[in-house]
Amino acid sequence: MKLYRTGKAAKMLGVHKVTVIRWIKEGKIRAMRIGKEFRVPEDELKRLLGGKTRSTAVIYARVSSLDQKSDLERQIEYLKEYCSAKGYNTVDILTDIASGLNEKRKG
């Protein structure tokens, strides 16, 4: 049985980690305590999601120079709206300010 940390469970459910912990303490979510932390079983997450898991996405945006910083912010907002409209759960946002010709970019 796969167990998820409360932060990961929160991302999958689309809520804040504090909300998941509160729900566990209220008995709305079944979880196991391991040390000082809670772990949520995979079958409990499936129950909460109605048997289906949301697709996840990682957003990647890049511009070539610092002069284009505003373009980078616009790209990120556009991609966040796109993911939301498609029902994707955005789990991370990667950004680069580097040339497209440089293949050793961070992102």
Q: Can you give a write-up of this model?
A:
The structure is a single chain. By secondary structure, the protein is an alpha+beta fold. The chain folds into 2 domains: 3-48; 56-97. It has 4 helices and 5 strands; from the N terminus they run βααββαβαβ. It has helices spanning 6-13, 17-26, 42-48, 69-86; strands spanning 3-5, 32-34, 37-41, 56-63, 89-97. Strands 1-3-2 form a 3-stranded antiparallel β-sheet. Helix 1 packs across helix 2 (17-26). It is elongated, with a radius of gyration of 18 Å. The model has no long low-confidence stretch (mean pLDDT 86).
Give short descriptive properties of this protein.
single chain, 107 residues, alpha+beta, 2 domains, three-stranded antiparallel sheet, 4 helices, elongated
Q: Structural class of the helices, strands and pairings?
A: alpha+beta
The coarse overall form would be elongated
Main sheet characteristics? 3 strands, antiparallel
Per DSSP E runs of 2 or more residues, the count of β-strands stands at 5
Oligomer: single chain
What is the share of helical residues? 40-55%
Mean pLDDT: 86
Low-confidence segments, given as residue ranges, are: none
Total helical segments: 4
Q: How many domains, in number, for the residues?
A: 2
Distance between the first and last residues' Cα: 33 Å
Q: If strands are numbered along the chain, what order do they take across the biggest sheet?
A: 1-3-2
Rg, nearest Å: 18 Å
* Percentage of residues in DSSP E strands: 25-35%
Order of helices and strands: EHHEEHEHE
